[in-house]
Amino acid sequence: MPRALRPLSPDLQIYRPQLTSVMSITHRATGVALSAGALLLVWWLASAAAGPDAYARLHALLATDLGLTAMLVWTFALFYHLCNGIRHLFWDAGRGFGLRTIYASGWTVFGTSIALTAIAWILSSKV
Amino acid sequence: MPAATSPRPALDWLKHLLEETVTLIRSSEQQPRVTLLRRFPVPRNFALPGNARIQHGRTWRAPPGAKRVKRFEIYRYDPDSGENPRIDTFEVDVGSCGPMVLDVLIKIKSEIDSTLTFRRSCREGICGSCAMNIDGSNWLACTRTIAGTAEPSTIYPLNHLPIIKDLVPDLTHLYAQYALIEPWLKTRGPVPERERLQSPAEADRLNGKDGKGPAACILCFCCTAGCPSHWWNGQRFLGPAALLQAWRWLADTRDEAAGERLDALEDPFRLYRCHTILNCTRTCPKGLNPGQAIGAIKQKIAQRRS
Fold it and tell me: Which pTM value belongs to this model?
């Protein structure tokens, strides 16, 4: 039988989600989210430059539940991408490839980015 | 933990979470016992070509009088039938069976359905023939205990490969990628009168002090078949198995072709499609570290440039 006619075995559909692959796809997803967040940052700066009315309009939008949720996600995305980026730097330097180290650093990144997100929100809510 | 009687349940819960995490890290070298999801939340036939979409197969009931029945959901494909692949469920009396997943497959083939097709040879984890996807990650059927599998246990062939029959994938492309890294000793100087000697330390670079160096690879392709980068770009990305072997020859002090080997690897796809996902290191049934080897190749190229 020609090889093209053979069925392809399933991959993503059945492969078990593991810390390794889940953290990798999260790194990519947070990177995409941050790009969108950068546009919002530009919008925010532009509205601040455009005057108090424009600034107030954007602020009203961001103060909605949806706006706050989006900003919470973006905060987490920022800290996750930062922490996991540091983890990637260690790998690029040839360190931290032991399986246990991979898992320890992975959970550390998850924990640290959640903690930093919480700290950022607690601090900013007091301003 | 008596969380209910504690005055600070939130603290206890945090402590519990921490303990669970430590257990997860400690057990990372073993087969995963707990995961939040058994598979990614996508439809079962998501993005599969029409002829690869999996259908429901038949159930083979356990014989009456079976003592310890365990279910195995196994990927089946019969090239002669013209039908799509299917999942058959086998109820196996594991009370009258050897301890390993390979024993189950052999029992099914000899007692239940003789058409079940799979590769096997050494039955002791050194030939690499019986590599397959067991409960969602790749391992050798002969070194995976039945007791360590889920209920029902799912058995698929290695991922993202053309299937010849049932659990037998066509590995031609993967062998071609292995051939591309030219896995043989290359020398320039005159042939010596006797063997090319290595010090124990130099040999350790290949075999590993713990026996888990790149030379211990059995080419079962569990890692390459479990690599998402290789799923999406397998035509051009060499994959962890071939790259681990590329490192095996780069690390060999007797080899004199490091420069041309690196030239062949320095490519946006062949080497650099590795995004350090590290599914390879997670799944290697021999405990080797393809991820580390790829990192070492990248470093060698970076050092050569500076």
Answer: 0.92
Question: Could you give the residue ranges of the DSSP H alpha helices within chain B?
Answer: 9-26, 101-107, 172-180, 200-207, 222-225, 228-233, 239-250, 258-265, 279-283, 290-305
Q: Are A9 and B159 in contact (CB under 8 A)?
A: yes
Q: What is the CATH number of the domain that holds A38?
A: 1.20.1300.10
* Contact between chains at A18 and B35 (C-beta distance less than 8 A): yes
Which residues of chain B does A105 touch, with a Cβ-Cβ cutoff of 8 Å?
none
Give chain A's domain count. 1
In chain A, which residues have their Cβ closer than 8 Å to the Cβ of B295?
A: 91-92, 94, 97
Q: Is the pLDDT of residue A18 over 50?
A: yes
Token pair of A115, please? 């903690």
Q: What is the pLDDT of residues A53-89, one digit of tens each?
A: 999 999 999 999 999 999 999 999 999 999 999 999 9
Contact B84 A7 (CB under 8 A): yes
Nearest to B28 among A94, A97, A103 (CB): A103
Q: How far apart are CA B122 and CA B145, in angstroms?
A: 16
Collect the ranges in chain B with pLDDT lower than 50: 1, 3
The boundaries of the domain holding residue A71 are 20-126
What does each C-alpha distance from B302 to B32, B181, B280, B297 come to in angstroms? 35, 19, 23, 9
The shares of helix, strand and coil residues in chain A, as percent rounded to the nearest 5, are 80, 0, 20
Q: How far is A2 from chain B (nearest CA, A)?
A: 10
In a domain, A1, yes or no: no
Domains annotated on chain B, with CATH: 50-169 (3.10.20.30), 172-186+201-305 (1.10.1060.10)
* Phi, psi dihedrals of residue B266, rounded to the nearest 5°: -70, 90
B137, B282, B298 member nearest A99 (Cβ)? B282
